[in-house]
Design brief:
Blueprint lengths: L1 E4 L4 E7 L4 H13 L3 E5 L5 H12 L3 E4 L4 E5 L12 E2 L4 H11 L5 E5 L10 H9 L3 E5 L2 E7 L7 E3 L5 H11 L4 E6 L7 H8 L4 E3 L3 E6 L7 E3 L4 H12 L5 E8 L6 H9 L2 E10 L2 E9 L7 E4 L2 H5 L4 H6 L7 E4 L12 H11 L5 E3 L2 E4 L9 E3 L4 H11 L6 E4 L11 H8 E2 L1
Parallel strand pairs: 2-15, 3-14, 6-7, 10-11, 18-19, 22-23
Antiparallel strand pairs: 1-23, 2-24, 3-5, 4-5, 7-9, 8-9, 11-13, 12-13, 15-17, 16-17, 19-21, 20-21
Helix pairs in contact: 1-2, 1-3, 1-6, 2-3, 3-5, 4-5, 5-6, 7-12
Length: 428
């Protein structure tokens, strides 16, 4: 599917976004294993989170969609059922990696498959530590399909070589069913939705500055929860609003987890005016109202590197594409992980920015995007990657002339409502 994006004059309005994908995944998977019926409101509408629901349903949980955004999951009380057919994770690396942690200690053999994009993504990063715990996992050249032969697990003390919230969560999920205390250490603190979700479902978790531990085995209990709006989805609208002096955009019930809200700090450093109101704690997750206005003089510039790159890994593409419209540009370093996402996001960002007339320098682990540039409309190749499609829709709002996004249907993987909401707030 192709989508034509016309330039905008301004960004105005208010939005209530679908539920956070990271939280939706974790709640769905844990609800499938828990005892009792979990009721979730504002569950993510993305295809990725639907994959997590489909997998736990295939494993014996009862899943009932109450409406477009509410779901009830009656769990298996700690015992997933074997299933003859492979578990289809679709395009969702979150589903595949985190579910592998839950299945490693279960009785039976489980096969996890995915679409061609997911089947290219690295899976040794979960097999190695899970194997140290006693798991029996087969890969194909380091990739999916994954075949898990359930086995008793023993706790380990593990330091992640690459900061990854998915790997950390997979190990904590495995530790939930292992004998002893599993500890995961990380040099850069990654998003902590896994820890908070485990606590919400009744597990005991211990946290230090650089580690998190879980003693197993533990039993989970069902919850009722409303999932906050997804700040990674908000990122596209936040960046869009930051490009237009005179903009005013408000987000209701937005997730503001400190390990995810770094984007607000970066936009503030670029000169955007960010206000946070009505902050609440819901199952350990911070939720609030966010207002963004662009600075009259335009955005300045910044360098994103080190721990910041790991914390902003999903938001880096959209930050990169607004770089030409800043005064001093945006430099990204230490983001090699972008090359093994749904696509090689570094290469695609660079190629598509050049198609729009921008100067950009590409590195193995990042990009230099100079500021003070004028972009023109172009035909954009999304590479079937939802974040590339959405990021360049934002870049197109300030370009001269119309921009055609190829592969725009990929946005449905995480955010089916994206284009409709963009049209709602873009004044033309």
């Amino acid at each position: 599917m192709e989508r034509l994006i016309q330039p905008a004059r301004n960004i105005q309005g208010s939005l209530r976004l679908p539920g956070d994908k990271s939280i939706s995944h974790r709640y769905a998977l844990l609800a499938g294993l828990a005892e009792g019926a979990t009721r979730l409101t504002n569950f993510s509408t993305g295809a990725d989170c639907a994959s997590s629901l489909a997998c736990v349903e295939a494993l014996g949980a009862q899943v009932t969609r109450k409406d477009d955004s509410s779901v009830e999951i009656t769990g298996t009380a700690g015992r997933f059922h074997s299933c003859a057919a492979p578990l289809d994770c679709g395009n969702s690396g979150s589903t595949m990696r985190m579910l592998s942690g839950l299945l490693a200690a279960q009785h039976g053999t489980f096969t996890l498959t995915g679409d061609p994009s997911l089947s290219r993504r690295p899976m040794e990063r979960i097999r190695n530590p899970l194997a140290q715990m006693g798991a029996h996992i087969d890969l194909t050249d380091g990739h999916a399909p994954i075949v898990i032969h359930g086995a008793p697990l023993t706790a380990i003390d593990y330091t992640t070589p690459i900061p990854s919230a998915q790997v950390k969560t997979a190990l904590l999920f495995a530790g939930l069913e292992a004998q002893g205390t599993t500890t995961v250490r990380e040099s850069v603190r990654t998003r902590d939705h896994g820890e908070l979700a485990l606590r919400a479902f009744g597990a005991t978790i211990d946290r230090t500055l650089d580690s998190v531990s879980i003693a197993g085995p533990q039993q989970l209990r069902a919850i009722e929860a409303t999932i906050p709006g997804d700040i990674s989805s908000a990122a596209f609208f936040l960046c869009a609003a930051a490009l237009f002096p005179g903009s005013n955009l408000i987000f209701d019930d937005l997730g503001l987890n400190p390990t995810r809200a770094t984007l607000l700090d970066v936009l503030t450093a670029l000169g955007a005016h960010i206000g946070v109101l009505n902050l609440e704690d819901k199952h350990g997750e911070l939720v609030g109202v966010v207002q963004v206005n662009a600075p009259p003089q335009g955005l300045t510039g910044t360098t994103i590197s080190g721990a910041l790159s790991a914390q902003l890994i999903d938001e880096l593409p959209v930050l990169a594409v607004i770089g030409p419209y800043t005064q001093n540009g945006i430099r990204i370093r230490d983001a090699k992980e972008l090359r093994v996402k749904e696509s090689d996001r570094i290469a695609l960002v660079a190629a598509n920015l050049r198609a729009m007339g921008a100067d950009v320098e590409e590195f193995d682990g990042g990009l230099d995007v100079p500021g003070g540039q004028t972009l023109h409309g172009a035909t954009i190749d999304s590479g079937g990657d939802h974040r590339i499609a959405m990021a360049f829709s934002v870049a197109a709002l300030r370009a001269h002339g119309d921009t055609l996004i190829r592969g725009a249907e990929s946005a449905a993987i995480s955010f089916p409502e994206f284009f409709d909401l963009l049209d709602r707030v873009a004044e033309r």
